[in-house]
Amino acid sequence: MSEVPDSVAVIDQIPQQGEPLTPRTPLHHTARAGGAGQLHYREHDLTGLLVLRGNAADKAFAEAVKATFGCPLAKTLSFVMAQEVSLLWLSPDEWWVLCPPDQAYALEVQLRERYSGHFALANNTGGMTRIQLSGPQAVQVLKKSIPYDVHDAHFPVGKVVATVFGKTQAVVRRLGQNDWEILARRSFADYIWRWVEDAASEYQR
Amino acid sequence: MFHIYCPHCEEYREEEEFHPKGEAHLARPEDPDNCTDEEWGDYLFFRKNPRGVHHELWVHAAGCRKFFNVTRDTQSYRIYETYKIGEQPSKAITA
Q1: What percentage of chain A has pLDDT greater than the value 70?
Q2: Any idea what the CATH number is for the domain that residue B62 is in?
Q3: Per residue in A122-172, pLDDT tens?
């Protein structure tokens, strides 16, 4: 066990004193849910997001990650889940950790205590939002939105892909046969939400 | 549309996920303080513009955001291979 170095600013974003804050998601101004019948979409409640960068070939790093988050470093274009935590592969040296917002700080501190080598961890909670699509027609919305091939053989359950979405970008992952999730930057959340509403409208009749 | 193999994502992706970043394998003069103006000018400003096989730098901007090299024919648009930064093109391809 090593101490968290002083040179790293590790800040709990949730204030411990004063009035408790009411967390608002990037899409708090919308209905946050929609759809009917074969297609439903909703915004996930506020999620903690840690952006993790490091060397996957470093065994000590990989072990510290597994011990902290409960799941191993995800392999290329895949994600792993352990209870409430998801670990998404973004690039060969970058992963996103999704966790309950009140655990983000604790997990960050834990990883810094377990491993002090060359790595980076940034708490981006609130920087992204998660839009979940479900139902047999959900795939139709994606076909209109991303250039990526969403066929079962090409985009199986457990895969995560960062790609172009409409005129912006998003990370798309497949949680189940008919369950998909779009992760979008908060500044583009409104655009993507309206895009999804529009794209979904023809399948709700 | 190009169908480009990203050596980091290890699969083919659509061209709109990528951005071209110009010529690959530009070697920075070892000692910029003591090289000639011509050497420095060549490094900063002058680029090849071949008709035929060309080595280019691309970035997977909407995907893994990693840079990599592409060997491409500027005339036929055929992509011969893609390889990671720091690697050399695996075979000598001539037009």
Answers
A1: 96
A2: 3.30.2270.10
A3: 999 999 999 999 999 999 999 999 999 999 999 999 999 999 999 999 999
Q: What are the chain B neighbours of A77 within 8 Å (beta carbons)?
A: 9-11
The yes or no reply on domain A31-46+128-205 and CATH 3.30.1360.120 is yes
pTM of the model: 0.91
Do residues A52 and A95 make contact, with C-beta atoms less than 8 angstroms apart?
A: yes
Instruction: Identify which of A77, A94, A169 has the shortest CB distance to residue B62.
Output: A169
What is the domain range of residue B72? 3-28+41-84
Q: What is the pLDDT of residue A11?
A: 84
